[in-house]
Amino acid sequence: MKPDTANGADAPLLPDVRHGPSGGASVSGAVFNLSTSIIGAGIMSIPATLKVLGVVPAVLLIFFIAFLCDVSTEFLLRCTQSGNSVTYAGVMAESFGKFGSLVLQICIMITTMGCLIIYLIIIGDVLSGSKAEGTVHLGVLQEWFGVHWWNSRAVVLLFIALFVMLPLLLLRRVESLRFSSFISVLLAVVFVVVSSAMAIYALFKGTTRNPRWLPDFTGDVSFFDLFTAVPVVVTAFTFHFNVHPISAEIKKHSDMTKAVRISLVLCAFIYAAIGFFGYLLFGDSTMADILSNFDRNSGTPLGQFLDDTVRLSYAIHLMLVFPLLNFSLRINVDGLLFPKSTPLPSNSTRFVVLTGFLLGLIYLVAIAIPSIWSFFQFLGSTSAVCIAFVFPGAIVLRDVHKISTGRDRILASLMIILAVIASSIAITTNVVNLITRRNS
Predict the structure, then answer these.
(1) N or C, where is the chain less crowded by C-beta within 10 Å?
(2) Which three-class secondary structure state does DSSP give residue 131?
(3) Which of 3, 65, 16, 43 is nearest to 246 (CA)?
(4) Non-local CB neighbours of 417 within 8 Å, separated by 6+ positions
(5) Residue 25 backbone dihedrals phi, psi, to 5 degrees
(6) If you write DSSP's letter for every residue of 256-314 in order, what string do you get?
């Protein structure tokens, strides 16, 4: 086993044993875990991305981001094989020292913590309702049983946190989540299939909206507004913080590369399908969270049943995604706070306390904050884009192991430039639009 040292550091940053024994995972298990890492809250905003960009540019953007993620992941895996590190933080430390590792860990914690909070908020919206733009949206439990104290957001999320998520969070190996990840991917497919079936039925019935194939600049939308859709797709494909925990339990480097590519292709098609059919079904009325469009009868046979099926499948999907993202959050928090301690899985007290503390903190924030969609976009413009593109590209350009080819350096440079430009424009445009809305 390679020691995870950083430029001669005395203690390992995040040793391999933190992730448990290696070599026991299968390619299929890795595919399900990777796909579960990718298909999270991002899927809800993909249809809105098509509304902003138009169908053709949005689909091309989805597959382009997937391609860049394949490139950046391959960079990370190759640098891991050539160096003495077995974690993303260790690879970053080999190139940029402890400061580089610290910056990465902070970005991972911000991204994973933000996504987990968003997951709970979405689950709460689905089951216990929400208020969006002054409109009350009833949750599934409220529609079925009426409004009661026991189906309020705080109580429902507490029950789910304790009796659904906590047992999965207490599993100490990523591979142990392969069955829940399989179910999660299956539910994502159910979400896509049911939404697609509803859209196809509406198409034959003649009640679908005419999709916009290209951007429309006739209204208030400017060219720069198009860049605000990029962070959504970037966040949807940010899974790099789970690459090393999953690859640590798989036998061959080539198997991990294969699993990554299968997952990216699978998820790109899922995103494109749900984006197209969701946009086809709701047109320009598509909301930033498409689940909000499913809180009404769609006019299809068994409309209410199908609407509830879509919302519940997505909510349960997020419940099963939650433990996988929490795994990376917990590992990075532990590595930052206790870099010289015994491996986290082997210390039961620290493992349970840290797991409970993080779950409790995420729960409290999700209850306190009713909606953080702007924060979701902020993640894609800052920490997520750094994790997915900027840091892998910088590692290649630094090339401490002398393995980068000319093609690698060109791709890394383009990746960083595109990421910085797109994120800068997106942040600036969002700030300007926010100021404009407040002043109007």
Answers:
(1) C
(2) strand
(3) 16
(4) none
(5) -90, 150
(6) HHHHHHHHHHHHHHHHHHHHHHHHHHHGGG--SSGGGGGSS--SSTTHHHHHHHHHHHH
